[in-house]
């Protein structure tokens, strides 16, 4: 099942409202899901990870326009599930996850 979150505009103001918790997140460029990522917790949270993307530290995601998130007890496992589901459906990984 995909991330059960609404899509939020990928702006500094909107990212400041993302949770400071561990979990997974998705980035979209318009209607295309381009990236799934995870934040393990402690100093790496959903919010801090999204801020890293906003700062341009992952060049592939520079065109992201929206994001969504989901708090998770096991973020790496949940990310792997999301990637497997996406690959099963689309016969490929999201473009910023492949590589």
Structure description:
- With 99 residues, the chain is an alpha+beta fold.
- The chain has three helices and four strands; from the N terminus they run βαββαβα.
SSE order and pairing:
Layout: E1 8-9, H1 12-15, E2 23-29, E3 32-39, H2 46-54, E4 66-71, H3 75-90
Antiparallel strand pairs: 1-4, 2-3, 2-4
Number of helices: 3
Number of strands: 4
Query: Mean pLDDT, as a whole number?
Result: 94
The CATH architecture classification is: 3-Layer(aba) Sandwich
Distance between the amino and carboxyl termini? 24 Å
Tell me the radius of gyration.
Answer: 12 Å
Strand content: 15-25%
Q: Which structural category do the helix and sheet elements fall into? A: alpha+beta
**Quaternary assembly:** single chain
* Overall body shape: globular
Low-confidence stretches: none
Largest sheet: 4 strands, antiparallel
Strand order of the largest sheet: 1-4-2-3
Summarize the structure.
With 99 residues, this protein is of the alpha+beta class.
Short descriptors:
alpha+beta; 29% helix; 99 residues; GIY-YIG endonuclease
């Amino acid at each position: 099942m995909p991330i059960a979150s609404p899509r939020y505009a990928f702006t500094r103001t909107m990212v400041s409202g993302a949770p400071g918790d561990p979990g997974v997140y998705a980035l979209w460029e318009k209607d295309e899901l381009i990236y799934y990522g995870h934040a393990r917790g402690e100093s790496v949270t959903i919010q801090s990870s999204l801020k890293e993307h906003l700062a341009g530290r992952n060049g592939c995601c520079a065109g992201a326009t929206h994001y969504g998130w989901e708090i998770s007890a096991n973020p790496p496992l949940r990310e792997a599930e999301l990637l497997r589901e996406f690959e099963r459906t689309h016969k490929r990984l999201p473009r910023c996850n492949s590589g």
